[in-house]
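Escalated from tier 1: manganese (II) ion holo job.
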Amino acid sequence: MGNHHRSFELTKKQNQLRESFKQLIAGPCSAETREQVLATAKEVSEIDELTYFRAGIWKPRTAPGSFEGIGAEGLDWLKEAKHEYGVKSITEVATPEHVEACLKAGLDALWIGARTTVNPFYIQQIADSLKGVDIPVFIKNPISPDVGLWMGAIERFKLAGISDVSVIHRGFFSYSKGVFRNPPMWEIPIKVKTEFPDLQIICDPSHITGDSKLIEEVSKFAMQLGMDGLMIETHPSPPKAWSDAKQQVTPIHLKEIVNAILLNKSDSDISHSEIERMRKDVDGIDTQTLQEIAKRMLMVKEIAKFKKENSATVFQHERWKHVLEESKKKAKELGLNEEFVEDLMNLIHKESLNIHHTIYNS
Ligand code: PEP
Ligand code: MN
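Tier 2 regenerated the structure:
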């Protein structure tokens, strides 16, 4: 896209690597005015990597009274943007009526929002309304970290005859407030990628971070984890945005982010053999760690047998408290994250209790 206005030249090497940037979806959180839509489309169309121009037409807002989207009128602006700047458009649909309006307006792709993926009834209705039409569908993860629900939604669209289904990782709701608006819980998209290697996963750093200053680092990280692309909310004047003002980037900022990722990729290619060597070292340490854990579990078996023979209690609260506290102290000395060490110890303890259980019942 935007072949006639290249904003930067790519080296041959970067060109080869571009294959791994399969999707770049950019555009405002919400379509606000015709001018805002066209101005954003013009700028993002200059990025070669752009695959879709996004703009929310119907907005799922947490509380009533905030801007709930411009409605069907905005679809005409997307049509105009495509006509003027050649950008394919995508928007969020949450009802069969939304689907009908989008198909009528000739949109190129649809996405399902996080608040819709949670409900199989909604998903089924939307999938049914697409029967007989084959349009690319991008499914955001449900608000809750429920992989089954996410994969179930994919299946419903596939069964309805949609051949091009991709997913968007936008982070998960968390009750505790941290740096991220929706913590990424990277282990979840990684699990999905491992289980479904052919499924395209696009990362949405905008809704993960909720903060335009963090978009670049999260985008880079997502690409390093092997994600297939990014969806980044882009607005000509983010502070004035009618929704998600804090997390939108300017088109110039977006170009910088895309450039940084392309450069990053060529760097990592150069140091490939170095990484392979370090990975081998890490694999060796993993093996040693498992061998040590196996030794520990053997000891636990011995202790459990001894306790059983001497009718001692399995669990001594004070002792466990002491072990945990000591581990946390050691974590500090070793420069390890205390919370991580506590989780690890709890996991080891769980297995020790299982061993006790087996031995006491044998
Ligand atoms: C959005 O993309 O603007 C949006 C509402 O996203 P999500 O469904 O991830 O909250
Ligand atoms: Mn948004």
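The first helix runs from residue 12 to 17.
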